[in-house]
Task: inverse folding
């Protein structure tokens, strides 16, 4: 029986598809990261900006 070896993209895709199911992961952060990944905008600057938005939303 042959095992198919997953590509790096397949592994990362699977991770982002299931990140919200991980224990102790904030659902808003998981959603934000998944959306940035799907939009091909997963950069440190975009993550920082989105985290800032989430923080200010929580304060209001």
Result:
């Amino acid at each position: 029986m042959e095992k198919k070896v997953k590509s790096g993209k397949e592994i990362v895709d699977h991770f982002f598809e299931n990140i919200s199911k991980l224990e102790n992961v904030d659902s808003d952060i998981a959603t934000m990261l998944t959306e940035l990944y799907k939009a091909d905008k997963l950069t440190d600057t975009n993550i920082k900006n989105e985290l800032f938005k989430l923080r200010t939303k929580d304060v209001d």
